[in-house]
Write a structure and sequence with these properties.
The protein has 290 residues and is of the alpha/beta class. The protein is built from twelve helices and eleven strands. It has one domain: TIM Barrel. The chain has a seven-stranded parallel sheet. A two-stranded antiparallel sheet has the order 5-6. A two-stranded antiparallel ribbon has the order 9-10. The chain is globular and about 50 Å long.
């Protein structure tokens, strides 16, 4: 099954400056129609799953913009509603499509890049309570599932898995990794084993990593769990935080995608710098694979 690509990537391609602590979630307030249009572009490209614009949305971030808890709740629910409206817009072809509400890591709420380090100094219990308000607001919007994504740390994965188990709601769990370890340095076997003790995790895998890291992660996931596997790497380009621009060439290649499908990936998409054109390519490759 094909998921979408980078929502922020498509929004930037549409001319939006997302250099804001809320990142793409800023447009929930300023330009919601553009979010709907970005979701529709991915659906038309062949994606069957849309991930919502709630990755970096938080009550703390909304409060910094002068919005109270009620307003923040409305925006989180809007993120799901916009994806649903985009699905309705393209529904004429009769293909089933799903909405995955994005639950980004605690580091994304901090908006300081710490989701690529993990180990925030908080244990699983504290992280669970930090995530709970946003988690509950998204559940109230009734997405088809939750996307617990770009998780750098097993402790945070456990915290989120606990919330999923409490709610009895389906979710996938995807780590951001560096080679054969999480960004926090834990072995992938330990990371993926979380899925074995949380029945509501319907898939486990990786996202926002180099394309070259995907195949080893699939192998590690298959060895650790029988849960379906989700993968959606970034393009492999590098980010220059000083110049605030992407550097290098994309490594998101069709040959790698075929390798991931053959290796056992069940859901495939893209993250940063992977747009509708690449998702259309994924859909073509997937359709041609047995």
């Amino acid at each position: 099954m094909i998921s979408d690509g980078g929502l922020a990537t498509e929004l930037e391609a549409r001319g939006h400056d997302l250099t804001d602590a809320l990142w793409s979630a800023r447009l929930l307030l300023d330009a919601p129609d553009e979010i709907r249009a970005a979701h529709a572009a991915y659906f038309r490209a062949g994606a069957r799953i849309a991930t919502t614009a709630s990755y970096q949305a938080s009550f703390e971030g909304f409060a910094a913009r002068g919005l109270d808890r009620a307003a923040g709740t409305r925006l989180l629910r809007r993120s799901v509603a916009l994806a649903r409206e985009a699905r309705d817009e393209v529904a004429g072809d009769g293909r089933p499509r799903w909405i995955a509400a994005s639950v980004g890591p605690y580091g994304a709420m901090l908006a300081d890049g710490s989701e690529y380090r993990g180990r925030y100094g908080l244990g699983a219990a504290a992280l669970r309570e930090r995530h709970r308000p946003r988690f509950e607001a998204l559940l109230a919007a009734e997405p088809d599932l939750l996307a617990l994504e770009t998780i750098p740390d097993v402790d945070e994965a456990v915290a989120l898995a606990d919330l999923v188990a409490e709610a009895g709601y389906p979710a996938w769990l995807s780590y951001t990794v560096d080679g054969d370890r999480t960004r926090a340095g834990q072995p992938l076997a330990e990371a993926f084993a979380v899925a074995e003790v949380t029945p509501y995790l319907v898939a486990v895998g990786v996202n926002c990593c180099r394309p070259a890291d995907v195949a080893p992660a699939i192998a590690a996931a298959r060895a650790a769990t029988g849960t379906p596997i989700v993968v959606y790497p970034n393009s492999g380009e590098g980010w220059d935080p000083v110049a605030r621009r992407w550097t290098g060439a994309s490594a998101f290649a069709e040959s790698l995608v075929r390798e991931w499908i053959t290796a056992g990936a069940d859901i495939i998409g893209g993250c940063c710098r992977v747009g509708p054109a690449e998702i259309a390519g994924l859909a073509r490759i997937s359709a041609g694979c047995p």
